[in-house]
Design a protein that fits this description.
Blueprint: H1 13-18, E1 20-25, E2 31-36, H2 39-42, E3 63-64, E4 70-71, E5 77-80, E6 87-90, E7 133-137, E8 154-156, E9 159-166, E10 170-175, H3 189-206, E11 214-221, E12 233-239, H4 244-260, H5 264-275, E13 279-282, E14 286-289, E15 298-304, H6 316-335, E16 349-354, E17 369-374, E18 376-378, E19 381-382, H7 387-392, H8 401-411
Antiparallel strand pairs: 1-2, 2-7, 3-4, 5-6, 5-9, 7-10, 8-9, 10-12, 11-12, 11-16, 13-14, 14-15, 15-17, 16-17, 18-19
Helix pairs in contact: 3-6
């Protein structure tokens, strides 16, 4: 299938010529996409394996319990906390998902790696024995749209105080590279450019699915973060509601616009540019800064120079410049803490894309931004979210934004266009 075959995704010139997207379906019916940047696959000289050889039951089929009784598919549902208004998805099937990293590992193979005939873990999720970037629906999703299951609201125990309904969202996995022992920070900028295209592709297509309100691409990295599969990958959560952090940001951006007529996120970026001290990187299209009220001991926000609402609105240069900046940010993040040997460390981090919601009328006063952070506060110390943070969401920082920025200034030039490192 060529790029033009997708209904809503519109590739720019580079992607049209240098990235090929090939869809297929896994054995249980989940959608799967190859994103190839290898010229022999882009040209069509070679093709990917589309057949999933596993014998998997249809994903929504009933199954037998421990006593041999047939039970229906355990669809994730969600309940609303009446005290905060937050929806809490509950997905019991995730208790059985494979874990290959850390002391609690339950599987010896890697389902995110390319298929290895005879491998211990069901030959993995990727039909081919190699790939560039792949995207597929999560086998153990926190949210999923189940055909034929009503998304109507009901009350827990029949009590309308506790609303509940199907968690009718979508969860996808993006594997950045076939090397299961690699690090995102070590990938070439050209491969990260393909990852950026994957974010844009999924944002464009999923935005038109019924019932989806917010699309959240993100990356968890590192055992300390809680990553269960050690492989360079990210995820895309597609919420059937506005997530609490986004709801808070929308309230503030909307109130700011009503009060001043301006865009709060743009004015924050401009104020950081004017202050200068906390800018850590910039290129033609993007600015990276430590926000003046940073919470985490390492925190960087990345914003486009141009007013952009969502990832699929980025033009070709903005996508390339983002790949360059993201690569530099990951490498400098790994060097941030001195372990004594000058080599830095494999930094645990979360990279979270905040983009405008799909239908909410407040979207026009929002602005695309990446929020990158780590809870490591020293090479051998972690910031734990204790009573004040966890109990009251009242943050206490162990450092200052200026000290974070100062450390980044020691690691490389601010102007990436003038000095590519």
């Amino acid at each position: 299938m060529t790029m033009s075959s997708f209904q809503y995704y519109q590739p720019d010139r580079y992607a049209q010529q240098h990235i090929r997207i090939t869809p297929t379906t896994l054995a249980d019916g989940r959608e799967f996409f190859y994103l190839d940047d290898d010229p022999v696959y882009v040209s069509g000289e070679k093709t990917r394996e589309l057949h999933d050889p596993r014998r998997l039951a249809p994903r929504f089929a009933p199954h037998l319990d421990a006593d041999g009784h047939e039970v229906p598919y355990a669809a994730p549902h969600m309940r609303r906390d009446p005290l905060t208004g937050d929806w809490i998805p509950m997905a019991t099937a995730r208790m059985n998902r494979p874990i290959t990293a850390g002391a609690g590992a339950t599987a010896s193979g890697n389902p995110l790696a390319a298929r290895k005939p005879g491998d211990a873990y069901q030959d993995g999720e990727v039909p081919d024995t190699d790939y560039n970037v792949v995207i597929f629906e999560n086998r153990f999703p926190s949210m999923v749209q189940v055909p034929g299951v009503s998304a109507a609201v009901s009350g827990v125990d029949g009590n309308p105080l506790w609303e509940q309904k199907l968690a009718a969202g979508r969860c996808e996995v993006i594997c950045f590279d076939p090397d299961e022992h690699g690090l995102p920070a070590d990938l070439p900028v050209s491969r990260l450019r393909t990852v950026v295209e994957a974010w844009a592709f999924r944002t464009a297509e999923i935005s038109h699915l019924d019932g989806i309100e917010q699309i959240f691409p993100f990356e968890n990295h590192g055992r300390e973060i809680g990553v269960s599969l050690a492989h360079p990958h990210g995820q895309v959560y597609c919420y059937p509601f506005i997530a609490p952090r986004m709801e808070s940001e929308l309230r503030h951006t909307e109130a700011y616009h009503e009060r001043t007529g301006g865009n709060l996120l743009k004015d924050i970026m401009d104020s950081e540019i004017n202050a200068g001290e906390r800018i850590v990187m910039r290129n033609h299209s993007w600015v990276a800064y430590v926000p003046a009220a940073a919470r985490w001991p390492l925190e960087v926000h990345v914003a486009p120079v141009r007013d952009v609402l969502t990832l699929d609105e980025l033009d070709d240069q903005e996508r390339w410049d983002l790949a360059q900046m993201y690569s530099t940010l990951l490498r400098r993040g790994n060097a941030f803490f001195d372990t004594g040997d000058g080599k830095g460390m494999d930094l645990p981090y979360i990279a979270a894309w905040h983009q405008a919601p799909i239908h909410d009328k407040r979207r026009e006063n929002y602005r695309l931004n990446l929020q990158f952070f780590s809870f490591r506060r020293a090479a051998n110390k972690i910031k734990y979210l204790a009573g004040s943070e966890s109990g009251m969401a009242a943050w206490i920082s162990d450092t200052t934004p200026e000290l974070i920025a100062q450390r980044f200034h020691e690691l490389g030039a601010i102007d990436l266009d003038a000095a590519r490192d």
